[in-house]
């Protein structure tokens, strides 16, 4: 048992508030939080701790959960950034064969070793800002072999000391060898069982958009997931309102992500299903979108709000979860507390994980130690990285 003491804890216990504990302590045993509270109230069992770590007044929060990334790919799309700055649209570039398809070509040509090298560097950057749980999607292979290769690489990132959840996103774009989206959707459904048997799939996602797949097509992919008992999530209403969120909610989706064009029906359906709204300010910012996700209505309906980097080479090439927390506040109007909840407890919920995201007894001992006086600083001080230490399953991952 290890005792960490003398920290200012932002526990996020309860449904709102920071859950601040000044001069707080955490008792950690077997990778779990055994007790959390004011040091003055430590239970007698704390005397049995074989190690005592002094936090020296540092700030402690739950470990960050980045619940939406496309971390495994090859190539880069910086030239598309230039094209967009000159006035080209994201959809226009995609229709001209750029966008997702150009990353597909580069990813197909890359070996597992090459993909792992790139993804490792990116995962380490996220971990360097406090990420302890990371979701990684496929979706740049769009053929059976490359989708499997991406998911295997994603799994191997777990060896770096971060918890990885994998998501099958073969319904991301129509690959060049298909001209019939329905035929491709059938194929996507056929690939899934073997990947599932190999243990490569924790959830199933799709891109529901006029430049990708319709709600009816995605529903067929979700049916295939349901037959295997796999949870679903959706890239929904990013560029237009397709009714994807309501369809996903009818499958009890863990999350719907992006949501700039989400309407009232989608919000109500998500609220009823307990689906998390994952907001992705990096993509909104980089694509210079102007339509804001309906944050006030989501809040009012009681839909939990999460935030993620959406790291990908096209629409959101960021590796900074802290910057996303800042952007969620400045661009979308979240409070700094909502931003931290979005990158911790609600991010975990978007992955179907109830065992992390808060500093309360019984949860995994995944936490971050930061320089700073108050947790609101994490979302305030953009471009800074105050991480001192990242702790996963009770084990310190070294000085940041
Ligand atoms: O989440 N919207 C679809 N998929 C990604 C972008 C993928 C890409 O442009 O390569 C996203 O923004
Ligand atoms: Fe995405």
Automatic annotation (TrEMBL):
Pathway: Amino-acid degradation; L-histidine degradation into L-glutamate; N-formimidoyl-L-glutamate from L-histidine: step 3/3. It is an enzyme of class 3 (hydrolase). 4-imidazolone-5-propanoate binds at residues 77, 140, 172, 238, 315. The keyword Translocase does not apply. Residues 59-386 form the Amidohydrolase-related domain. It comes from the Bacteria. This is Imidazolonepropionase. The lineage of its organism: Bacteria, Pseudomonadati, Pseudomonadota, Betaproteobacteria, Burkholderiales. The gene is hutI.
């Amino acid at each position: 048992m290890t005792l960490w003491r003398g920290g200012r804890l932002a526990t996020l216990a309860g449904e709102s508030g920071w859950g601040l504990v000044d001069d707080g302590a955490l008792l950690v045993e077997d990778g779990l939080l055994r007790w959390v509270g004011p040091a003055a109230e430590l239970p007698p069992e704390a005397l049995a701790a074989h190690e005592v770590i002094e936090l020296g007044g540092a700030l402690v929060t739950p470990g960050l959960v980045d619940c939406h990334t496309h971390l495994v790919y090859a190539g880069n799309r910086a030239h598309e950034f230039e094209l967009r700055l000159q006035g080209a649209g994201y959809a226009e570039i995609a229709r001209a064969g750029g966008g997702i398809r150009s990353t597909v070509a580069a990813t197909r040509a890359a070996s597992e070793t090459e993909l792992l090298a790139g993804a490792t560097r990116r995962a380490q950057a996220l971990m360097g800002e406090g990420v302890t749980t990371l979701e990684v999607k496929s979706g740049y292979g769009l053929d059976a072999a490359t989708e499997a290769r991406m998911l295997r690489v994603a799994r191997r990132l777990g060896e770096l000391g971060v918890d990885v959840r994998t998501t099958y996103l073969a319904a991301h774009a129509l690959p060049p060898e298909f001209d019939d989206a329905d035929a491709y959707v059938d194929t996507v459904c056929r690939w899934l069982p073997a990947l599932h048997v190999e243990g490569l799939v924790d959830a199933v996602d799709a891109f529901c958009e006029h430049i990708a797949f319709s709600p009816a097509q995605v529903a067929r992919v979700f049916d295939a997931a349901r037959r295997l008992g796999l949870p679903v999530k959706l890239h929904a209403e990013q560029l237009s309102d397709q009714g994807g969120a309501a369809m996903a909610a009818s499958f009890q989706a863990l999350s719907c992500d992006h949501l700039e064009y989400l309407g009232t029906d989608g919000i109500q359906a998500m609220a009823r299903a307990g689906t998390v709204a994952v907001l992705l300010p990096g993509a909104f910012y980089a694509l210079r979108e102007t339509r804001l996700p309906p944050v006030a209505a989501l809040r009012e309906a009681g839909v939990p709000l999460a935030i993620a980097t959406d790291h990908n080479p096209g629409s959101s090439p960021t590796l900074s979860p802290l910057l996303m927390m800042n952007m969620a506040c400045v661009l979308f109007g979240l409070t700094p507390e909502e931003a931290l909840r979005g990158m911790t407890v609600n991010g975990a919920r978007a992955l179907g994980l109830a065992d992390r995201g808060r500093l309360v007894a019984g949860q995994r001992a995944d936490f971050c130690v930061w320089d700073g006086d108050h947790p609101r600083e994490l979302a305030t001080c953009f471009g800074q990285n105050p991480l001192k230490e990242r702790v996963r399953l009770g084990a310190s991952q070294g000085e940041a």
